[in-house]
C-alpha cells in the first residue's frame, strides 16, 4: 500500500526483501521467500518462512533500502527428532562387555537441526559380522526438555558372546545418522574361570620333582568367552589383564608365590612363573618343585584382585632314586 493506505496492484514483489532471525541464530534462523500472490491473494506479496531454528523469531521486511514499519514475531517450538539430523553412537562412557548392557547415545535433533523435544518410536537392531540378527528391541516415543540433550538407550541391550557387531537405530523405519556402527564386545574380565579344563597344552607332563614343567591355560569368562584378540580388535583390548598365581601343596599347605615374566632358574628351588596373556587368549604357568604331591593352583586376576573361579590341581611325581637318597 501507499502512504495513504491504497493498494498498488502493479507493484512487483521482487522489490521486497524479508528476513527472520532469533537471538541465537541472527542469520540462519529461517529461509524466507517473498512471492507474488494469485487468485484471492492477487495484489498481495506472500512471505513464506521455513524455520531453521527454534525460539522467538522476528520477521522484518524491507522495500528497497527502506524498512517497513512494524516487526512480526512468532515462536517456533522444538520438533520431534529426525533420523537425518539426529546422531547416534556408542556411549563413550562405557566399554562394551559380554553380559553388560550396551549404552547407545542419541543426540536428538529436529528437522531444523535444533535439539528435539521428543524421540519418535523406533528400533535398535544388533547383528553379527555376517549379518545374522542377534537381537532387536523397540522403543516408544520419549519426551525431552532442555537443550543439548543426550539420550541413553539401554533397554535390555545385552550381548553374551564376545565379538564384533553392527548396531543400527531407526526412527519409524528410517536409519538414524551414524548407524549402523561397529561395536566390539569384550569378554568379561571380572568373571574369569580357570580349572582343569582350561589346560590346552603341557610340557614335560606330568611334572617330576627337580624338573621344569609347564601348562598353557586358556581362561574363560562365565559366559564361555575367551580373551583372544579377533582380527578387528585393538591389541590394547586385554592389555591390562594380568594373572598371578600361588602353588599350595595340598598335604603340607606350604605355598610358593609365582613370579611373572622371568624364566625359571635352574639354581632355585620350588619356583613358578606366570607369563603374560598372549594374543590367542592363553598364558603359561611354568614350575619346578622339589616336593612331590598335588599342588592346588590359586590364580588371581589384577582386574578384581581376587582368586578366579575354578579348581586347578597340578601333580608333581617323585624323582628318580639317587645314591644320596
Description:
- The protein has no helices and 28 strands.
- By secondary structure, the chain is an all-beta fold.
- The strands form 8 sheets. Strands 10, 11, 14, 15 and 16 form a 5-stranded antiparallel beta sheet that branches. Strands 18-20-26-25-24 form a 5-stranded mixed beta sheet, with no helix packed on it. The chain has a 5-stranded mixed beta sheet with strand order 19-28-27-22-23, with no helix packed on it.
- It is rod-shaped and about 115 Å long.
- It starts with 15 loop residues before the first strand and ends in an 8-residue tail after the last strand.
Set out the fold topology.
Blueprint (H helix, E strand, L loop, with lengths): L15 E6 L8 E7 L8 E7 L3 E9 L2 E2 L4 E5 L10 E4 L13 E4 L10 E2 L2 E7 L4 E7 L2 E2 L7 E3 L9 E9 L2 E2 L5 E5 L6 E2 L5 E5 L3 E2 L4 E5 L2 E2 L21 E7 L5 E3 L1 E2 L10 E4 L8 E6 L4 E9 L11 E5 L8
Quick structural gist:
This protein has strands spanning 16-21, 30-36, 45-51, 55-63, 66-67, 72-76, 87-90, 104-107, 118-119, 122-128, 133-139, 142-143, 151-153, 163-171, 174-175, 181-185, 192-193, 199-203, 207-208, 213-217, 220-221, 243-249, 255-257, 259-260, 271-274, 283-288, 293-301, 313-317.
Amino acid at each position: 500500500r501507499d502512504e495513504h493506505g491504497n493498494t498498488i496492484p502493479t507493484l512487483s514483489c521482487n522489490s521486497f526483501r524479508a528476513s527472520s532471525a532469533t537471538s541465537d541464530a541472527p542469520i540462519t534462523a529461517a529461509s524466507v521467500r517473498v512471492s507474488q500472490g494469485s487468485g484471492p491473494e492477487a495484489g498481495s506479496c506472500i512471505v513464506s518462512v521455513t524455520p531453521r531454528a527454534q525460539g522467538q523469531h522476528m520477521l522484518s521486511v524491507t522495500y528497497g533500502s527502506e524498512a517497513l514499519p512494524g516487526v512480526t514475531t512468532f515462536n517456533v517450538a522444538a520438533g520431534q527428532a529426525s533420523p537425518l539430523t539426529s546422531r547416534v553412537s556408542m556411549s563413550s562412557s562405557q566399554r562394551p562387555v559380554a553380559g553388560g548392557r550396551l549404552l547407545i547415545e542419541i543426540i536428538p535433533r529436529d528437522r531444523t537441526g535444533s535439539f528435539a523435544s521428543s524421540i519418535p518410536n523406533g528400533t535398535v537392531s544388533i547383528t553379527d559380522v555376517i549379518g545374522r540378527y542377534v537381537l532387536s528391541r523397540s522403543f516408544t516415543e520419549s519426551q525431552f526438555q532442555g537443550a543439548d540433550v543426550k539420550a541413553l538407550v539401554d533397554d535390555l541391550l545385552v550381548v553374551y558372546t564376545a565379538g564384533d557387531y553392527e548396531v543400527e537405530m531407526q526412527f519409524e523405519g528410517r536409519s538414524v545418522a551414524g548407524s549402523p556402527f561397529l561395536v566390539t564386545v569384550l569378554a568379561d574380565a571380572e568373571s574369569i574361570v580357570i580349572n582343569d579344563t582350561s589346560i590346552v597344552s603341557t610340557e614335560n607332563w606330568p611334572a617330576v620333582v627337580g624338573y621344569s614343567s609347564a601348562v598353557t591355560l586358556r581362561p574363560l569368562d562365565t559366559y564361555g568367552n575367551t580373551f583372544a584378540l579377533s582380527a578387528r580388535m585393538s591389541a590394547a583390548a586385554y592389555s591390562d589383564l594380568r594373572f598371578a598365581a600361588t602353588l599350595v601343596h595340598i598335604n603340607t599347605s606350604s605355598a610358593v608365590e609365582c613370579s611373572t615374566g622371568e624364566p625359571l632358574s635352574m639354581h632355585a628351588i620350588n619356583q613358578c612363573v606366570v607369563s603374560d596373556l598372549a594374543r590367542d587368549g592363553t598364558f603359561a604357568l611354568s614350575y619346578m618343585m622339589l616336593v612331590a604331591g598335588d599342588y592346588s593352583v590359586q590364580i588371581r586376576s589384577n582386574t578384581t584382585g581376587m582368586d578366579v573361579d575354578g579348581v586347578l590341581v597340578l601333580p608333581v611325581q617323585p624323582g628318580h632314586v639317587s645314591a644320596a637318597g
